[in-house]
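User: Structure tokens for this complex, please. No commentary.
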Amino acid sequence: MKPLLLHGHERAITQIKYNREGDLLFSCAKDHTPNVWFSLNGERLGTFNGHNGAVWGIDVNWDSTRVITGAADNTCRIWDLETGTEITTISTENAVRSCGFSYSGKQIMYTTDKSMGFESSVYVFDLEAGKQLLGEDSLMKAQSSGNKITSAIWGPLDEYIITGHENGDLVKWDVLTGNQIQRVQEHKGTINDLQHYKDQSMFITASKDKTAKLFDTATFEHLKTYKTERPVNSAAISPIRDHVVLGGGQEAMDVTTTSARAGKFDARFFHLVFEDEFGRVKDHFGPINSVAFHPDGKSYSSGGEDGYVRVHVFDPPYFDFLFEC
Amino acid sequence: MPSADSEIKSSWADQVEQDEDDLPPPSECIEGDTKVVTEYKVNDEGKKVKVVRYYKIEHRKVSKTVAKRKTWKKFGEARNDPPGPNPTNTVVSEEIFMQFLSNKEEERQTDDDPLNKLKGQKIVKCRICKDDHWTTQCPFKDKLGALPDLLKDDTNPGFLAATATTAAATPSTSQVEDKMKAGKYVPPSMREGANRRGESMVSSRNRDDAATIRVTNLSEDVRDSDLQDLFRPFGNIARIYLAKDKVTGHSKGFAFINFLRREDAARAIAGVNGFGYDNLILNVEWAKPSGTS
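Assistant:
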């Protein structure tokens, strides 16, 4: 395969995400301008200019009309996708770590970091209510006492929010009451990323403890573990085959202080069920911070600490490959 | 910088080249389902380069919403980009391949191969009695068990061979002499005795080196006393130097033994080289004179 190199960022990529149809690819980085690309040919549709800090999270709603970004400049912004104009800015006490549209697109959630006397919290806003567009009267606010929320996604039917924490906890929050419904600790390190399977029946976590784990969304039952020998920054599940892709690598801050062994920065493919690694794609020059499968399962993208987003379209050998056990 | 450039008079030839710098305008043409974009530019070495890019035009049937999005105007920093991918942002990188791992059938095949090759060959050879079994299973394997005869019998062929090699030592100097005879120029640094500085300075060291052997592939647990036990049968030892790790005090795996007599050293080499000691096979050879490495 010949990957498309998307060079729209000057700093490390923090998250990439496809829209529902997969024709658009959103990327945000530690520079201040999230980008949106046509995934087919790598053409840049536009940039969302306005943030003044590292953008940690990006999401697009179901019908690809709005985009939400959360950044370290203590704002969460909602953009009109067609024109790239800002619709509203929600000011927060702290840096926004992750954000997302609910399935309906009527509600948004974001999580904030813990600092300056504020606890790490989850917020939910209703976009239909005028006041809440300005960041007042949140529909739900829940504090995570103690450990920081590092990733968050909506649960199915917009009933709850799943958050991954610094200490490896997974928590399910009720959207209406803000109560914790469930809490499990399967990981020993920070959960860097959470991604749903296409039907949201299960999700995959990527953790600094060098593993990625598969969970049942409804029961939080730990199903599978994918082990590597470096921190995992992101993991995604293929929508068409029983595959998961893991992206990671040594932490950027450790790269210069540890021995320069090449080959830790490749995207690694595991079998969903058998937990065995069967393939690798090596092309980033730094740790991979975010991976995403195209909704048609025929390509995937990865965004790395090197500031590049790479769009890979699978070759026939990938589809011919049969896992032997 | 620009002012400095303008002051320096460039040569006549350069000026002519610069005057010719106007490049043909980029062109674009569509043939069937390929779009060819031709550009001209000057590369880093000052040479003109013609860049031809081929784009494959594909028509795809997509849903209405996706098709509509394709017609959206670009915004933000991409506002002024021409239609199609902007080469500054979007690069098609080199072909890469997915490496497939653990294809078990292949693994089995590779496992089989080396064994097949070895079939019908004598794999194992004892270093002590040269028979068809492992050295550890040799009936004569007891410590230096095979050595006493070697020590008693001075006409042992192994010993002779060892002394022969000492006679043929310092081949480099003889080679140099050959060269001199052939009438070729030899730089002073390569001539005989070039690396011999002051005779008096090195003399004591030289004497040492002559009867010094180097023992390598020692195990970590070896102590000075072990070496003494091992090499005392061959003759009087002047000095044993066992390289040790400063921190742990373990052996670094090599040692130098200075014998008083060169013959003893030769016998030690013949006797102990290839000898199994502490599960490792010792390698014993003449120590290279220091400073020749």
